[in-house]
Design a protein that fits this description.
The protein has 258 residues and is of the alpha/beta class. 41% of the residues lie in helices and 21% in strands. It folds into 2 domains: 35-117 and 220-254, D-Maltodextrin-Binding Protein, domain 2 (3-Layer(aba) Sandwich); 120-217, D-Maltodextrin-Binding Protein, domain 2 (3-Layer(aba) Sandwich), CATH 3.40.190.10.
C-alpha cells in the first residue's frame, strides 16, 4: 500500500511537470512580435497628411510602410507635434520618425538617420499679388512665417541674425503659416518646396513660389542613437524598394513636376 502511494505521488508530480512544460510552450508560441511606433506630424502634404475620411497617408507614410513590410517588422503610427518628435524618440515613446525630417549635423547628435530617401529644399512663398519680393534678397525688413522646429525656422533665424530678414514668426504647422500669408499677416513663408507646391496647387492665384532654392537638403527616417540594427534593416529595405520599382511607384503617386 505504501509503495502504491509513492507511485501515485510520483505520477502526479510528473503530470504537473508535463503540464508546466505545455503551458510554457504555449506561452512561447503565442509571443507577439514587437510593434514599432512611428511618430509623424500629419499636416505636411504630400509627405504626411489626412484624407477627407481622416486616414493617414502621404509619401513618407507609404514608404515607411513598404520598408517595414520588406524588413519583416510591424509598425503603428502615432501623431504628434513636429517639434515633439525628436524628444519623443529620445524618451522611447516612439521608435521611428517618418515626418519629412531633414538630415542635419545638429540632429545627427541626437538621432540616427536612415540613408536619405528624397532630396528636398527650402523655398520662399509669397502672395501672388506681391511684386516687391522677387528673390530672397528682397526679404530685408520683411516678416516671415516658419514652422516651429523645422529647418525653415533655422534658416530664417540665421537670415535674421545676418540682417537679411525682419521679423520671424513661428507657427506649430505649415497650414497656419500659409493661412497667415494669405491673410496678409506676414510677407513670406520659408518652407520645404514640395509641401509649399501642394498648398499653391490647392489655392490657385493666391500664393507663388520664388524660383530659387534657398537651402538644399535631404530627408531621412530617424531612430534613436542606440537603434543601429533597426536603422540597418530599414536602409536595406529602402535599397530593395528602389531596386524593384516600388519607390518609383510611390513617388509617382505623390509628386508631379512643377
Amino acid at each position: 500500500m505504501q509503495l502504491r502511494h509513492k507511485f501515485t505521488l510520483l505520477a502526479a508530480l510528473a503530470g504537473s511537470v508535463l503540464l508546466a512544460g505545455l503551458w510554457s510552450g504555449c506561452g512561447k508560441s503565442e509571443t507577439k512580435a514587437r510593434i514599432y511606433v512611428v511618430g509623424t506630424e500629419a499636416e505636411f502634404p504630400p509627405f504626411e497628411f489626412k484624407t477627407d475620411k481622416g486616414e493617414l497617408t502621404g509619401f513618407d507614410i507609404d514608404l515607411i510602410k513598404a520598408a517595414a513590410a520588406k524588413a519583416g517588422i510591424e509598425i503603428r503610427f502615432q501623431e504628434m507635434a513636429f517639434d515633439g518628435l525628436i524628444p519623443a524618440l529620445q524618451s522611447g515613446q516612439i521608435d521611428v520618425i517618418a515626418s519629412a525630417l531633414s538630415i542635419t549635423d545638429d540632429r545627427k547628435k541626437n538621432v540616427t538617420f536612415s540613408d536619405p530617401y528624397i532630396e528636398a529644399g527650402l523655398s520662399v512663398a509669397v502672395a501672388e499679388s506681391n511684386t516687391s519680393i522677387k528673390t530672397s534678397a528682397d526679404l530685408v525688413g520683411k516678416s516671415v512665417a516658419v514652422q516651429q522646429g523645422s529647418t525653415g525656422a533655422e534658416a530664417a533665424e540665421k537670415l535674421k541674425a545676418e540682417g537679411k530678414i525682419g521679423e520671424v514668426r513661428q507657427f506649430t504647422n505649415v497650414v497656419l503659416c500659409m493661412m497667415e500669408l494669405t491673410k496678409g499677416g506676414v510677407d513670406a513663408v520659408i518652407n520645404d518646396r514640395p509641401t509649399s507646391a501642394v498648398y499653391i496647387s490647392k489655392q490657385p492665384g493666391k500664393i507663388k513660389l520664388l524660383p530659387e532654392t534657398l537651402v538644399s537638403d535631404a530627408y531621412g527616417f530617424a531612430f534613436s542613437l542606440k537603434a543601429g540594427e533597426l536603422a540597418a534593416k530599414i536602409n536595406k529595405a529602402l535599397a530593395e524598394l528602389k531596386a524593384d520599382g516600388t519607390y518609383a511607384t510611390i513617388e509617382q503617386k505623390y509628386f508631379t513636376k512643377e
